[in-house]
């Protein structure tokens, strides 16, 4: 494991501090396992130039000072990792356990229990909170989604439903990626919605982002959530 992946050297945090040694990441950080090397390097270049903006600003700060050699070392390490099956369990429901943003910026179940209406939200909760807080590399998440989300997301993803383009045009027939285009099946729904929204608003504006503009232009936030729920329901 390269030094930049496992060891923090100020001002750069070790990759594993947020994305974990497995590269599976958490809702607040995103996945890296199995990303194509060239795609990884291109994203770091976009963070460095500011074409891609991290809402927490961390990746933009890290990308400015990390060396090209370290970027490639990290990219090559994560590229060979296999995504973990069973990482997400999608639960369609009208209600969801009450929760709050707690340790490690994770959404945790309210200590006094209870449920609340889900509405049009996606709520991602750890299957095992103790494991998630300690960044256990094999402990996944529940995705609470509105009833019908997966079916609506499948329709949008596979046909475009008159609002977008089918995902398989670029991401491959099985959505496991193609060439320099990353896998999107079985990835974190919070990350998916955040990226689709950033493509739409221009917070992701690197060279590869132009391909996503016609995909996101007509999507509502509910559409984005439905697509994210569907992708999370697929095993990588």
Keywords:
Cytochrome Bc1 Complex, Chain D, domain 2; 236 residues; alpha+beta; two-stranded antiparallel ribbon
CATH topology (level 3) name of one domain? Cytochrome Bc1 Complex, Chain D, domain 2
Give the oligomeric state of the chains in this entry, treating copies of one chain as homo and distinct chains as hetero.
single chain
How much helix, percentage-wise, in residues? 25-40%
Computed over alpha carbons, the radius of gyration is 17 Å
- What is the CATH class of one domain? Mainly Alpha
> Which regions have little confidence, pLDDT < 50, spanning 5+ residues?
none
Structural class computed from helices and strand pairing: alpha+beta
Secondary structure: number of strands: 7
Strand % is 5-15%
Query: What is the succession of H and E elements?
Result: HHHHHEEEEEEHEHHHHH
Spatial sequence of strands, sheet with the most strands: 1-7-6
CATH superfamily grouping of one domain? Cytochrome c-like domain
- Count of individual helical segments: 11
- Write down the overall geometry: globular
CATH architecture of one domain: Orthogonal Bundle
Give the termini separation.
23 Å
Report on the biggest sheet: 3 strands, mixed
Secondary structure elements and pairings:
Elements lengths: L2 H4 L9 H4 L17 H13 L8 H8 L2 H12 L8 E5 L2 E3 L1 E3 L5 E3 L5 E3 L5 E4 L2 H5 L7 E5 L3 H11 L8 H4 L17 H13 L11 H4 L4 H13 L3
Parallel strand pairs: 1-7
Antiparallel strand pairs: 2-5, 3-4, 6-7
């Amino acid at each position: 494991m390269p030094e930049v992946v496992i060891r923090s050297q100020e001002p750069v945090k070790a990759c594993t501090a947020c994305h974990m040694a497995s590269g599976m990441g958490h809702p607040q950080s995103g996945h890296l396992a199995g990303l194509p090397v060239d795609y990884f390097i291109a994203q770091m270049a976009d963070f460095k130039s500011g074409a891609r903006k991290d809402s927490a600003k961390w990746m933009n700060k890290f990308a400015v000072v990390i060396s090209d050699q370290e970027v490639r070392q990290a990219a090559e390490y994560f590229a060979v990792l296999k995504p973990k099956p069973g990482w997400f369990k999608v639960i369609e429901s009208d209600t969801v356990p009450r929760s709050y943003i707690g340790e490690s910026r994770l959404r945790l179940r309210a200590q006094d229990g209870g449920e609340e209406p889900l509405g049009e939200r996606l709520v991602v909760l750890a299957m095992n909170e103790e494991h998630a807080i300690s960044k256990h590399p094999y402990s996944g998440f529940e995705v609470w989604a509105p009833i019908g989300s997966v079916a609506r997301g499948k329709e949008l993803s596979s046909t475009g439903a008159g609002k977008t383009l089918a995902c398989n045009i670029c991401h491959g027939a099985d959505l496991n990626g193609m060439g320099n285009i990353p896998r999107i099946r079985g990835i974190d729904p919070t990350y998916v919605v955040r990226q689709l929204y950033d493509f739409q608003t221009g917070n992701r504006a690197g060279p590869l982002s132009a391909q996503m503009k016609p995909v996101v232009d007509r999507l509502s936030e509910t559409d984005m959530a439905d697509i994210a729920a569907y992708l999370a329901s697929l095993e990588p």
